[in-house]
Amino acid sequence: MHYHYVLERVSPPGRGGSLQTRLEYLLELYSPRNLYVLSEITRKIEGLFPEGPLHEALKVLLADCLDRCSSLSPLPGSVARRRGLR
Q: Which 3-state string (H, E, C) describes the chain?
């Protein structure tokens, strides 16, 4: 449930297909507990900033955080290369 909630809210159907595909892959990396927290963050964004540019900017930042905080990213200062979807 939380997986689909975050997916639908951060990348609504009909917007860029590549963003939705990427987001689907990233959300599969997270545990149910993490997905619950992500859905709560999404709800807070929608509750505090229901419309406008700040609402969209926060959703983009959330999607970016999903990418940066996934297990594909090495620790800061590590010599390991980033294993991203790019």
A: CHHHHHHHHHCCCCCCHHHHHHHHHHHCCCCHHHHHHHHHHHHHHHHHCCCCHHHHHHHHHHHHHHHHCCCCCCCCCCCCCCCCCC
pLDDT tens per residue across span 10-25: 776 666 667 778 778 8
Closest CA to 70 of 44, 39, 40, 38: 38
Question: How many beta carbons lie within 10 A of that of residue 1, not counting itself?
Answer: 9
Can you give the pTM of this predicted structure?
0.60
